[in-house]
Amino acid sequence: MNKKAAIDLEQCREDADRYRLLAEQSTDMISRHTPAPDWTYIDVSPAVESVLGYTPEEIIGMAGYDMFHPEDADNLLKRAESVRYREGMYTNVYRYRHKDGHYIWLETTSRTIRDDNGEPVEIICVSRDVTEKEEAQRAMRRLARVVESSTDMIMFCNHQTRRLTYLNESAYHTLGSEKDTLSVFYLNQLFAPEIMETLIKDALDHAATHGVWYGSIPMQLPDGLDRVAEVREVIAHRNKREDNKVEYYSIIGRDITLRRKAEEEAKRHQLEMAHMSRLLSVGEMATGLAHEINQPLAAILNYCRGTQRRLDDGADDAVATVSRSMELITKQAKRAAEIIKRMRAFVRKTEYQRLEFSINDACTEVSNFLHQEAIDHSITFDFHLDPDNPQLLADKVQIEQVLLNLMRNAIEAYSDCEKAYRPVIITTRNEGGYIHISVVDEAKGISAEGLANLFEPFYTSKSTGLGMGLSISRTIIETHGGQMWAESDGKTGTHFNLKLPLRDK
Predict the structure, then answer these.
(1) Of all residues in the chain, what percent carry a pLDDT higher than 90?
(2) Which of 6, 141, 436, 485 has its CA 20 to 30 A from that of 70?
(3) How far apart are the C-alpha atoms of 371 and 328, rounded to whole Å?
(4) pLDDT for 463-485, tens place per residue?
């Protein structure tokens, strides 16, 4: 061997030693395998112990193929999505069995070494543990699937431009667009200008300061869409690499079309039930109403007959006599008309509408409506009304229906009672933003069993009742954000109590 050849050989040895040193110090696992399908280990770097748990001596001679997860063993043959090819090297991400028995994720770049005839001699692999990275990516993909399949609208909004950079399927559907159609949305397109400048701006500012905002803001959807939607949550996401500034917002909305339709249907059903209840109440009071109307009619008839007799007897001043009689007849006719007006107003089917009215006036008006029935049962209405005359914001007709039901129940409670003095005590008071109303009788009271079932539909102690009055009354009060309950000792009377907010809660 000449001197130059000796120098070249020495250089090769030094290079080999240097490469072996690099391989042994690398945290990546470097391995050599047979080109046979079983991928037998020929050699492996010490990093195998930290990656797979084996020592080099243990793993050399083992079939590498047997350690693949069954679902990933043929990734290279199948050219699976996890396999990339570039300039004669394959990169594969797969699950591989650890010595302890569990699987880890490896990312391996491999190259086949061939002889001068092109036949494979061995396979060189460089592998690294990417379990943490792969599980994080898979978690992100799972989260993305959840976001995409959510029935809530989920939108990402750029902090500076207010452009929506991402919309999930539900958001596209609610906005009347398709994901495959290129559509650009900005936040101000989804809200009325006054809402955008007030509620949305406040929500974004609150989220930027506190991280998240919760509430309910109505959205303005494109024309022609029979949908109702609202924003329920805004989350601010910060870029921790740039002074923790807000980078974008997640805006979560909800299509409430079905809920709104259900609410409207429930409201319509309630109106129907309330109307039916009023009709039934008038039917039950038909005799009393006929008697009450009959009084002014009888008076009119008497005035007419009396005037006729005076004229026949030669009254001194016929004009004055007729004039006085007409005044009395007019007064009684107005009284009859007022009775009819009250009855028609009560049974008229009205839309649900809130207005401000005096609860004291409502109590007295309902008692006037029951005037004749109270006389027939020797009832005395005893009022203890709040001197400040509190104003209630509610549906006046429905609240009067509840009061009528309670007052009539109080009157009827005395039907089998021998007491001479029969008061129905009506009290109103304003306390803590609520109006408290009570209707009290001093009859025999209600048993504990009766109290337990009092507000159940179709429960009644009357032989002719349907048992819907109190059930409908409680529904009306609860719809107004209030409460209704009864108290009785079963001996000395019953207290019906109402609690209604002065304003919507």
Answers:
(1) 31
(2) 141
(3) 21
(4) 444 455 677 788 788 888 899 99
Residue 190: Cβ within 10 Å count: 26
If you average pLDDT over each of 188-202, 228-242, 443-457, which comes out highest?
A: 188-202
Rounded to a whole number, what is the distance in angstroms from the first to the last CA of the chain?
Answer: 102
Q: Which of 395, 411, 401 is nearest to 462 (CA)?
A: 411
> What's the number of CA atoms in the CB half-sphere (13 Å) around residue 321?
16
Cα–Cα distance measured from residue 500 to residue 483, given in angstroms and rounded to the nearest whole number: 7
User: The pTM is what?
Assistant: 0.41
257-284 vs 469-479: helix crossing angle, rounded to 10: 140
CB distance 218 to 230 below 8 Å? yes
Long-range contacts of 134-137 (CB under 8 A, 24+ apart): 134/93, 134/105, 135/105
Of the ranges 21-25, 130-134, 145-149, which is most confident? Answer: 130-134
Q: How many beta carbons lie within 10 A of that of residue 473, not counting itself? A: 25
Q: How far apart are CA 173 and CA 171, in angstroms?
A: 5
Residue 211: left if φ>0, alpha if ψ -120 to 50, beta else—which one?
left
Residue 369's closest CA among 303, 481, 292, 448? Answer: 292
**What tokens does 302 get?**
């008497």
The pLDDT value given to residue 498: 93
Contact between residue 458 and residue 277 where contact means Cβ atoms under 8 Å apart: no
Report residue 42 as tokens. 């020929």
Q: Partners of 439 in the beta sheet?
A: 426, 496
φ/ψ (deg, to 5) at 169 = -60, -40
Residue reference for tokens 């090769």: 12
Each residue's pLDDT tens digit, 60-113: 999 999 999 999 988 888 888 888 888 889 999 999 999 999 999 999 999 999
The per-residue pLDDT for range 148-201, each reduced to its tens digit, is 888 888 999 998 899 988 888 888 888 888 776 667 788 988 899 999 999 999
Contact between 384 and 452 under an 8 Å Cβ cutoff? The reply is no
Query: What is the 8-class DSSP label of residue 257?
Result: H
